[in-house]
Specification:
Length: 157
C-alpha cells in the first residue's frame, strides 16, 4: 500500500530535504513493519499489510492471519456473526482454527447446544429424497461456516 501522507513521512527514520524543499524518505523503520527501502520517497508496508496509524498491521478480512498477530482470526470477510467478527476477533460461542499467512481461519460454533424444531417436510417428486426445514434456536446470524452433516444427528423412530 502506498503511503499517501508523504508530508508526515510515516514510517521514515531518515527524512531528506533536497534543494526543491520536497521531503522524502531514504530509509524506513522496519521495527514497525515497513519495508527498509522506500518507493518514490515514501515508506510502504509489505504485501498483506496496511498502514495503521504509524505502523504496518494485518488487513482484517483478507483471509490471511499474519505473524504480528494484530488479528485473532481472519476468515476472509468482515462479517460479524460467522465466528470471526468484523474486527477479526473470535466471537462468543465460536472457536477459530488454522489461520495462517496462506489460509483463512476456519471458525466453528461451539456455544450452547442448538435446538431444532421441524418446520416442514417436502417430498421431492420422482426421487427418493426429502427436504427438511428446521427452526434453529438460539438464532445464529449465519450458518454458512457450519458443516451440518457433522453437527446434526437425525434419529428416525
Amino acid at each position: 500500500m502506498v503511503n499517501s501522507q508523504c508530508s508526515t513521512l510515516i514510517g521514515c527514520i531518515t527524512p531528506i530535504t533536497p534543494v526543491n524543499s520536497q521531503q522524502y524518505c531514504a530509509f524506513c523503520n522496519q521495527s514497525v513493519g515497513f519495508n527498509a527501502v522506500p518507493i518514490n520517497g515514501a515508506c510502504h508496508c509489505p504485501p498483506k499489510y496496511e498502514v495503521q496509524g504509524s505502523v504496518c498491521g494485518d488487513i482484517c478480512g483478507d483471509g490471511f492471519l499474519m505473524v504480528n498477530k494484530s488479528e485473532v482470526c481472519d476468515d476472509g470477510n468482515r462479517i460479524s456473526g460467522d465466528g470471526c467478527s468484523s474486527l477479526c476477533k473470535t466471537e462468543v460461542g465460536f472457536q477459530c482454527f488454522n489461520g495462517s499467512a496462506t489460509l483463512p481461519s476456519n471458525c466453528v460454533y461451539v456455544g450452547v447446544p442448538l435446538k431444532l424444531s421441524l418446520n416442514l417436510i417436502e417430498r421431492v417428486d420422482s426421487l427418493n429424497e426429502g427436504v427438511f426445514k428446521f427452526n434453529i434456536k438460539p438464532p445464529l446470524l449465519t450458518l454458512n461456516r457450519m458443516n451440518c452433516s457433522k453437527e446434526v444427528t437425525l434419529v428416525c423412530e
